[in-house]
């Protein structure tokens, strides 16, 4: 509406009103004599009592935020916010966001209500964020001048960051088009390793008994089963295939008779293990070893006692029959722990072992957990990742100039397995923005340099070198081999042209 007051009166005032109404579309209300002066007195009284006289127009200010699902609009002024006349608006409750680890600069897009063009401000951080850090965004706005200022505060910054609306770059694109164009740029997550199964290990091969025949024969004497023979058959890898996949699946062509025989053998092995845990039974780990080669198909109740056995510092646990049993236990835990509870306990044990006391079996256990499960990497904290990467990097450096046996190859396997921590921190583990990845990259490049100087004398090292070039790309966030972990897995296996075999329980 239009409020109209005039010192004129009579016909003159009437004519002015008629002319005014002809030129405006809004209703015109005539203020009574001295109406504005009286209003000023009311306003003065309210001002004296610290009451609002009127409210200024408070334009909405919006920005763009990103998460795993993409970019979206985020309003920074609460819907019910009000601004008393003559005052500056300041956020009562700052908007809270999470800044991803490794961030080197901030691009902040802003849109103000009733302003045609959006704006963009770019802030370069003095150093990359070392981890994902929470930030608070506060808005300050002066409606009379139209100015707006945003302040970003975080424990990860030495001082608050300030974004001035007037200093930001003006954009010509439509706001929705800008949102659509903002696509998250996350490094890729490597594929999980799934070891395949096939009939090669079930059927008889040249000079090798198949698992089907082994089961038939050992079950003829269920009271005196040759558990070692079964464990050897279960662990055999023929032409790259195991009897059971790492997911615990069978080959589709497997007969129902063989499946039934395996179920019987599993039940008998469980009974044998329970008897051993109670303090009776034989003193051999072969029944346990046979079950660990079921991978994720292993009865999960067995994983707990294996971890218990490793956590005990003495050799009194029924599974700790000798020092060599740690190979079975550590690699067995890595093969079988399929649930987050068991995986967390396994990591708790591994992280309790001083870095200098880690051997290839500790490396193998951690590598299997990280590479074959989606839940395991998400259980790790930043501190856990730093410890594990330190172990892997140290072992790689120690291996330079060595024979590069399976003790070495588990180190890059663990190193690359840690890249799957991106399942939890999508922008982590990229060299140039993550100190941990920087150390990994240096160790990998030095190993490649050493291998290159010796490759003519040891042709088998070509396989190491080729895979490590892919590791470098992955650490730089430029990976092109999503199955890199599977390639590393094959180098830890029984292929005598690629590793020197050190233990019969090695995969």
Task: Describe, in plain words, how this protein is organized in 3D.
The structure is a single chain. By secondary structure, this protein is of the alpha+beta class. It folds into three domains: 2-48, no CATH class; 61-181, no CATH class; 199-491. The chain has helices at residues 10-23, 35-48, 175-181, 211-218, 227-235, 256-277, 286-292, 303-311, 325-336, 340-352, 360-372, 375-378, 382-399, 406-417, 435-454, 461-475, 484-491; strands at 2-4, 28-30, 61-67, 70-75, 89-90, 95-99, 105-112, 119-124, 133-142, 147-153, 161-164, 169-170. The strands form three sheets. It has a five-stranded antiparallel sheet, with helices on one face. Helix 9 (325-336) packs parallel to helix 11 (360-372) and helix 15 packs antiparallel against helix 16.
Cα distance spanning the termini = 83 Å
SS element count, helices: 17
Envelope shape: elongated
Number of domains: 3
List the helices and strands and how they pair.
Blueprint: E1 2-4, H1 10-23, E2 28-30, H2 35-48, E3 61-67, E4 70-75, E5 89-90, E6 95-99, E7 105-112, E8 119-124, E9 133-142, E10 147-153, E11 161-164, E12 169-170, H3 175-181, H4 211-218, H5 227-235, H6 256-277, H7 286-292, H8 303-311, H9 325-336, H10 340-352, H11 360-372, H12 375-378, H13 382-399, H14 406-417, H15 435-454, H16 461-475, H17 484-491
Parallel strand pairs: 1-2
Antiparallel strand pairs: 3-4, 3-7, 5-9, 6-9, 7-8, 8-12, 9-10, 10-11
Helix pairs in contact: 4-5, 5-7, 6-7, 8-9, 8-10, 9-11, 11-14, 13-14, 13-15, 14-17, 15-16, 16-17
């Amino acid at each position: 509406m239009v409020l109209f007051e005039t010192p004129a009166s009579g016909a003159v005032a009437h004519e002015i009103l008629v002319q005014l109404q002809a030129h405006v579309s809004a209703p015109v209300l005539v203020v009574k004599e001295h109406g504005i002066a009286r209003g000023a007195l009311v306003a003065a009284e309210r001002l004296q009592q610290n009451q609002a006289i009127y409210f200024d127009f408070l334009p909405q200010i919006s920005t763009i935020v990103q998460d795993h699902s993409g970019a979206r609009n985020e309003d920074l002024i609460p819907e019910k916010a009000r601004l008393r006349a003559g005052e500056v608006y300041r956020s009562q409750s700052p908007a809270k966001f999470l800044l991803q680890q490794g961030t080197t600069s901030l691009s902040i897009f802003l849109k103000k209500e009733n302003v045609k063009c959006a704006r963009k401000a770019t802030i370069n951080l003095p150093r990359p964020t070392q981890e994902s850090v929470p930030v608070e965004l506060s808005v300050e706005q002066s409606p009379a001048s139209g100015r707006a200022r945003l302040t970003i505060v975080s424990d990860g910054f030495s001082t608050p960051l300030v974004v001035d609306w007037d200093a930001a770059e003006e954009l010509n694109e439509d706001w929705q088009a800008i949102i659509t164009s903002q696509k998250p740029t996350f490094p890729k997550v490597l594929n999980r390793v799934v070891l395949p199964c096939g009939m090669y290990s079930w059927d008889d091969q040249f000079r090798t008994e198949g698992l089907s025949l082994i089961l038939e024969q050992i079950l003829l004497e269920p009271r005196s089963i040759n558990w070692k023979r079964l464990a050897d058959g279960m662990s055999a890898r023929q032409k790259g295939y195991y009897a059971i996949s790492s997911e615990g699946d069978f080959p589709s062509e497997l007969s129902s008779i063989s499946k039934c025989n395996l179920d019987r053998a599993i039940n008998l092995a469980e009974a044998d293990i329970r008897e051993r845990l109670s303090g009776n039974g034989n003193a051999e780990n072969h029944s346990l070893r046979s079950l660990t080669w079921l991978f994720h198909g292993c009865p999960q109740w067995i994983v707990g006692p294996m971890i218990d056995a490793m956590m005990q510092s003495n050799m009194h646990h029924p599974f700790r029959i000798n020092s060599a049993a740690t190979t079975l236990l550590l690699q067995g835990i890595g093969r079988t722990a399929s649930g987050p509870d068991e995986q967390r306990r396994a990591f708790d044990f591994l992280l309790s072992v001083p870095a200098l006391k880690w051997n290839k079996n500790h490396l193998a256990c951690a590598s299997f957990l990280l590479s074959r499960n989606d839940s395991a990497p998400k259980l790790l904290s930043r501190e856990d990742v730093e410890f594990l990467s330190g172990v892997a990097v140290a072992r790689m450096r120690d291996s330079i100039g060595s024979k590069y046996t399976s003790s070495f190859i588990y180190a890059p396997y663990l190193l690359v397995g840690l890249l799957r921590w991106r399942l939890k921190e999508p922008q982590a583990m990229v060299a140039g923005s993550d100190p941990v990845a920087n150390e990994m990259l240096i160790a990998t490049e030095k190993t490649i340099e050493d291998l290159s100087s010796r490759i003519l004398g040891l042709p088998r090292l070509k396989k190491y070198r080729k895979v490590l070039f892919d590791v470098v790309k992955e650490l730089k966030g430029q990976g092109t081999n999503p199955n890199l972990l599977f390639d590393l897995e094959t180098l830890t296996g029984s292929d005598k042209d690629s590793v020197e075999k050190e233990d019969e329980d090695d995969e």
